[in-house]
Each structure stands twice: as C-alpha cells, then as structure tokens.
Amino acid sequence: MHTRYFARIFLVFAVVVSVVSAATISLDCRRDLRSQIRSAPSGSRLVGDGRCLWTTRDTIRITRRISLSNFRLKMASGVGRRFAMSIDSDGVRVSDFEMIGNLGTVRSSARQSLLQVSGSNFQITNGRFTDSSRDGITVQPKRGRAINGGTIRNVSGRGNDRDVVALNTERAGAIGTRNIVVDDIEAYSSPSRGAVEVADGVEDITVRNVYAEGCLYAVAIQDHSRSRLESINRVKISDITAVNCGYGILAQTMALRHSDISMENMTFRRCRRAMLVKNLDRVKVSGVRVSQSTSSGTQVDFQSCNGIDLQGISFSDSSARKTAIRISDSTNVRVSRAVLRSSTSYDFGMKIYPARGRASSSPQLQSNDLRAARVPLRIFR
C-alpha cells in the first residue's frame, strides 16, 4: 500500500520536473543575458524577440543542455582575449542569432573568436558573424574532453579577421574533434582567411555548400607540424564556390601526411589561384570549374601528394598564362577529363614532375583535352 503511494508521488514529481526543465523562457531585454542563461534549467528553451542587442565584456558560458534562439550579442570595444559566448556543455542548440565583434579595437595579440564550442552533439543554425577580431566560430576541445558530433548550418560572416568556422583540436591533436558537419556557410570580405578552416588533426568532417567572396580562400586544410597527431583524415568537401579570392582551396600543410580527402563540385571564379594542395594522400578531386583567373601563376597545383585522382576539371574565359595544372613530387597520379576551353591562353596545359626519391608508376592520363595551351602536356623524367 505504502509502496504504491510513494511510487505515485515519485511519478508526479518526475513529470513536474520534466515539464519545468523543458519550459520555454522568454528572454528579457532589460536583464543581463548571462544571468538569464545561468539560471535556466537543463533542457529549457530560451527565446528572444530577435531585436534586443546585448553587449558583453566577458564570456557568457553555457554549461547546461539548453536551446538558445533569437538574440543579438556584441563584444564590447577594446575587450580582448575573451569569447563573447562559449558552449561548454553537450547537446546545446543555438539558432537565429547575430554576433558582432570588436575588430580594430584590440591588439592582434588579444584577438579572440566570438563563439567557442567545446561540447559534443551541438547544433548551431541560422547565425551571422561580423567584425570578429578572430574567427566567428571556433570548435575546439578544452579540459581534455574530446568533441564528437556536431552540426553548423546556414551561417554567414562578413568582415571577420579570420574564418567564419574553424575546426581544431587540443594539445596538437591529442584531444580530438570528429564527426562534424559544416553546411551552408557564406564568407565575405575576410582577406586574411576565409569561410572554413579544417585544422590540426580533426577527423571525419563534412564541409558542403560554401560560398566565399573577397577572402583569402573558401576552404583551408592546415596543420602546424607540432605533432604527428595533427594528421587530418577523412574529410569530404563539396559544393564550393569562391569568387574574387586568393585561393579556392588552400591545403598548405606541412610534411605531416593527411589522408582520404575528397573534394567535388567546385567553382572558382576570378580567383588568383584555384587550388594549392600539399601533402595529402588518397585525395580525390572531381567536378572543378575554373574561370576568369586573375593570376599568371599555376591554377591547380598538387605538391607531394600520394594517390591523386583528378576527374572532370575545366578552365574557361581566362587570359592567365603559365600553367593550368601542375603536379610535382607525387605518386600514383590519375587525371581524366581535364579540358582547356578555347577562351583560355595558358602556356602549359599540364606539367607533371617526378617524385623525389620514391618509385612511382607513370601517370594515368585519360580523355584530356588541353590543346588550347601552347604546350598541352609536358612530363618531366
């Protein structure tokens, strides 16, 4: 009898707690945003009206699994070395927001990103970042906790000093970041960086639907050569557009090997160079369109790569000279369906240099049409 009574009481209590914890809380523009987030129970939804702008001088930390939406946040002028917001818990959702940085008011040594993410299984959607002194979003573990799982979707940035989205690890790759999807990213007017950076040992990453204009690059792959654990593996990059950028794809990695990188369906228009790719193994590139190149240098440049599969690349509407495709110090090379349109004027269609100190089979070249170049193909022995 008593057991059934207490069981009913416990069930009612659990239901009440569940309802309270899942409550929707309207953000009050007159109150400090930090205190409203701090007092919200786990599982709650905090919703603003989309018009209020909060200014912060210190990092607003999210330490519980909550949903936060429809808000605007600005980092105060002159405040450096602090994120505007940090997601420290797993399962956090942030959507429909704007973050404004203080670029130009802090020293370069004090720059910091607007939003830091160190929790797993996060969802960040429908965001806008402007004037960050560093990145818009930095995804990076801290306190020894790896990041596993997360989505960043429909995010744009304008006038940021570095990347809109940067994926990184902790302790030079010892604490990992993996299974992240970055989708529908736009970057404008970031001449020092670009839309997305994949760096320092992250693995199992998907980057798709990226547009960059007036940036150094659309997507970068890089390491800092501090540890073998910075090896970047299993990255899928697709549906990329770069306009008026320094590079479309910049993989300017060190001698450390990175593997299983695929890139497909990419358009590079009025860029100085379409692709610079170094030190990648098992790299597959397909469906590339290069037009209106603005530099006389090499447009697509592979250096020290093993297992290159380049399929379906076209060049058009360009007065650029020198070389369309250059492959050097690389093994197991396959190039098919590379085309130079009659509207191009390259000196060389494709140059292939031998691998230094390594045995390599002859390059496999199939169905290429490079006749628009002064010298369509040159293979150095």
TrEMBL record:
User: Per its UniProt record, what Gene3D superfamilies does this chain match?
Assistant: Single-stranded right-handed beta-helix, Pectin lyase-like (2.160.20.10)
**Keyword presence, Repressor:** no
The highest taxon in the source lineage is Eukaryota
User: What residue range is the signal peptide?
Assistant: 1-22
Q: Which SUPFAM superfamilies match?
A: Pectin lyase-like
Question: Which SMART domains does the record match to this protein?
Answer: PbH1 (SM00710)
Is Signal among the key words of this record?
A: yes
Its taxonomic path starts at: Eukaryota, Rhodophyta, Stylonematophyceae, Stylonematales, Stylonemataceae
Q: Which UniProt keywords apply?
A: Signal
Q: What is this protein called?
A: Right handed beta helix domain-containing protein
